[in-house]
Specification:
four-stranded mixed β-sheet, alpha+beta, homodimer, 37% strand, Translation Initiation Factor IF3
Chain lengths: 100, 100
C-alpha cells in the first residue's frame, strides 16, 4: 500500500507519516486541479486521528466555499502479521469527501 | 468533561488515557448490565484512533452475538484555548453503536 496512489485510484489519499500539509494539499489538488467529485481519505491504526484532522481542515477551511463536505465515514478491521509473525488486528477508516 | 459520565448521559463513553480494556468494559456494561439500546463513543484529538479500536473490538468481538453494530459516525471540530491562551482547533468524533 503506497501513501499516494496516483495511477489507478487517483481519488484515494492514504494517510501516513508525512507532514500534515502534504495530505491537505493532496486532497485539495484532487478536487481542484484533478476536478474529481469524490475523495476517499484512507487511514489505519494511529493515523486515524490524523485523517480526521485532514478531513476537517479541508472541508471546513480550504474547500468550504467549493462545497466540499463529508459524505460518509466507515470503520473496519484488517488482520496482518507483525514482525514476530503474530497475527494482529488494526482498525481502518475511510472518510469520503464529496463536492456538490 | 469527565471520562465517564454516569449520571446524566449514561450511554456516552468518553475515550481518554485510561487502559484500553476499561473502555471496552464500559461499553459492554452499558449494553448488558444497563441494557441501553444505543451507546455513543466520544473522542477528540489523539484519542480518536483509540475510539475506533474500542468500537471495532466491542462490535466485532465482545458484542457481535448480541447484535451490536455501528449505526453512525460523525466528525467535527471544537475550538479551545491552550495553555498559552491561544485558540486552537481539535477534531472530535462520535461513534454510535446500536443494539438491534
Amino acid at each position: 500500500m503506497t501513501e499516494n496512489n496516483k495511477t489507478n485510484d487517483t481519488n484515494i489519499i492514504y494517510i501516513g507519516g508525512k507532514p500534515f500539509m502534504n495530505y491537505i494539499t493532496g486532497v485539495v489538488m484532487q478536487f481542484t486541479t484533478n476536478n474529481v467529485k469524490e475523495v476517499i481519505i484512507r487511514s489505519r491504526g494511529k493515523f486515524i486521528s490524523k485523517a480526521v484532522d485532514v478531513a476537517e481542515v479541508t472541508a471546513k477551511k480550504f474547500l468550504k466555499d467549493q462545497g466540499v463536505s463529508v459524505k460518509d465515514i466507515t470503520i473496519g478491521s484488517e488482520e496482518f502479521e507483525n514482525q514476530e509473525g503474530k497475527k494482529v488486528n488494526v482498525s481502518v477508516m475511510d472518510i469520503i469527501l464529496i463536492k456538490k
